[in-house]
From TrEMBL:
Key words of the record: ATP-binding, Cytoplasm, Cytoskeleton, Microtubule, Motor protein, Nucleotide-binding
Location in the cell: Cytoplasm, Cytoskeleton
Name the record gives this protein: Kinesin-like protein
Key word Lipoprotein present: no
Domain Kinesin motor: 1-342
Binding residues for ATP: 86-93
Family label: Belongs to the TRAFAC class myosin-kinesin ATPase superfamily. Kinesin family.
Chief place where the protein resides: cytoplasm
Keyword Lyase on entry: no
Record field: compositional bias (Polar residues): 506-517
Organism: Acanthoscelides obtectus
TM region positions: none
Gene Ontology cellular-component annotations: microtubule; microtubule associated complex
Annotated GO biological process: microtubule-based movement; mitotic spindle organization; spindle elongation
């Protein structure tokens, strides 16, 4: 947006006239530059979102600049910035804070001349009072960048010691180390921060402005809010709004600066030049992805997130309508036109854990809606399938007609017969399509089941092999080879053996056909060879009581052995 100030008394006395016109619809028309390109015969037209004419009041700027929307977004957790740009004496500080006399020793509680910052604070607390379900914590800081040094305006000290600007890996941005912040519970606390910072700000005087800002200032308000969700979890949001008053660009020939004032002007112009280069790089599509020199200036370091980060930025370009300042006016208009092309992707700043919770909630809601959609689609498919079935039941099969009867049929009867056959043909085609679809679904399910069975069998074999190799598995009772061979007269033993298979007895079962690997493993586990029989010499002979005790086990083994034999014979 643009704001054009009225002609000053000095400009009126010097005989300056206005070179700026307002056609409407956010347009600014500037007279031609004498001796400029094209002979200076063609005026220049610029288009912007909002243009404030010299008669606009401070309240008009708040209502129609979009500042209210910016504050609302900051309350919701966005990072927002409002900064004023223009040449020295163009009305930047007046737009943001108001005339200098408002913050002197005799501060004025409220005036129509109060600027955008004061009115934004009032609107901010009105919003906070409306959100009764949330808990808010406000903190404010105020700094200036003077001769490329960051000074804390709330705690400047006697020597005005500069603060360091460092990079935060966690926040992915620059911050000022040891910057003093003030907790603000009431509107008066924020106003006290504004007044204290304005009293400590570096100002000067030169030929073009009696109250010239000699530094860039950044007033930041951090808004932390907590709101309970449906399941009782508190969701925190971290909003922020910056008010940036840039020092005016100066032409030393006009300001007649010298000494300390000249050094200040050089540093101001240097930082503004870097800011302009960053804006030009961000607004040029051909330079997308190229290096942006944020580190070349303290100002661009602290405004990096505002220019191309995840925040929202409002730029107010202040211009002078005097003919003597036409070159600076056109440069400011070009500057703002480039900044208008910059696009950012604003996001809400939240705690990572809470952001994950909200993301999961959104995913659950999306899956629930998708589930409902699939359920409704399934119901429609089922109803349509049942409707087709009813139609197939109701549809009548055309009567069988031989060739002789067909030759005797007249035209209407023949047409009716053809219609019936065509109807049956369509019904059969539809049934055929449904059957093909069902077949494909069954084949897919069959393949899935087969793959699952193969996976389970493979897993079972791996478990069996591990169990057989492990020496830590307790031994299980083994029975004599006579019982396994089916001899009913043989007595059982109560001998415990190691289940590790004997490498010499891998071919204990002979068969003309190849036995499956799983069956072979089971037989190897159950078979007791000659090596195990030789170990029975030192064991007592079985008694009749042993036969009675082990009779159930013997019967069970016989049944198992018979099943194994039948299984091998089948294979």
């Amino acid at each position: 947006m643009h704001r054009v100030r009225p002609l000053s008394e000095k400009e009126i006395k010097a005989g300056d006239d206005m070179v700026v016109q307002f056609p409407g619809n956010g347009q600014v028309l500037v007279d031609a530059i004498p001796g400029g390109p094209g002979g200076g015969q063609k005026p220049r037209l610029f288009s912007y979102n909002v243009v404030f004419e010299p008669a606009a009041t401070q309240e008009d700027v708040l209502q129609f600049s979009g500042m209210k929307r910016l504050i609302e977004m900051a309350v919701e957790g966005f990072r927002c910035t409002c900064f004023c740009y223009g040449q020295t004496g163009s009305g930047k500080t007046h737009t943001l804070t108001g005339p200098p006399g408002l913050f002197g020793i005799k501060a004025v509680p409220y005036s129509d001349n109060h600027g955008l910052v004061f009115r934004s604070f009032v609107y901010l607390f009105q919003l906070l009072q409306e959100h009764t379900s949330r808990t808010f914590v406000l903190k404010a800081s105020f700094l200036e960048i003077y001769n490329e040094k960051v000074i804390d305006l709330l705690n400047p000290g006697t020597c005005r010691k500069p603060l360091a600007v460092r990079w935060s890996k966690k926040a992915r941005g620059f911050f000022v180390e040891n910057l003093f912040t003030v907790d603000c519970e009431e509107l008066d606390d924020l106003m006290a921060v504004l007044e204290e910072g304005m009293r400590n700000r570096s100002v000067g005087r030169h030929n073009m402005n009696d109250y010239s800002s000699r530094s860039h200032t950044i007033l930041s308000v951090h808004i932390t809010s907590e709101e309970p969700s449906e399941n009782g979890v508190f969701i925190s949001r971290f909003g922020k709004i910056n008010f940036v008053d840039l020092a005016g660009s100066e032409m030393t020939k006009k300001t007649q600066s010298e000494g300390k004032t000249l050094e200040e002007a050089n540093n101001i112009n240097k930082s503004l030049m870097v800011l302009g280069y960053c804006i030009a790089s961000l607004s040029d599509p051909k330079r997308k992805g190229s290096h942006i020199p944020y580190r070349d200036s303290k100002l661009t370091k602290l405004l990096a997130d505002s220019l191309a980060g995840n925040g929202v930025t409002l730029m107010i370009a202040c211009i002078s309508p005097a003919r003597s300042n036409i070159f600076e006016t056109i440069n400011t208009l070009r500057y703002a036109a480039r900044a208008k092309k910059i696009r950012t992707k604003p996001v809400v700043l939240m705690d990572p854990r809470e952001a994950l919770i909200i993301s999961l909630k959104r995913e659950v809601a999306s899956l629930q809606s998708e589930n409902e959609y699939l359920r409704s689609a399934l119901n429609v498919y089922s109803s349509s399938s049942s409707g087709d079935a009813s139609e197939r039941i109701i549809a009548q099969t055309p009567p069988h007609v031989d060739l002789e009867e067909l030759a005797k049929l007249e035209g209407p009867q023949l047409a009716e017969l053809v219609r019936l056959y065509m109807k049956e043909n369509e019904a059969l085609r539809k049934d055929n399509g449904d059957l093909f679809l069902s077949r494909d679904l069954l084949q897919r399910d069959h393949e899935i089941v087969c793959r699952e069975n193969e996976r389970l069998l493979k897993k079972l074999e791996e478990v069996n092999s591990v169990c057989c190799r492990s020496p830590l598995i307790p031994a299980r009772p083994a029975f004599s080879a006579d019982i396994l061979s089916g001899d009913q007269e043989s007595s059982s033993t109560n001998i415990w053996t190691n289940p590790i298979p004997d490498t010499d007895n891998k071919t204990a079962v002979n068969s003309s056909k190849q036995i499956p690997e799983s069956v072979q493993k089971e037989l190897d586990k159950r078979q007791i060879g000659a090596r195990n029989t030789a170990n029975l010499k030192g064991i007592r002979k079985p008694s009749s009581n042993d036969d009675k005790i082990h009779a159930p086990k013997i019967a069970q083994v016989k049944n198992t052995n018979a099943k194994d034999k039948r299984y091998i014979q089948k294979m």
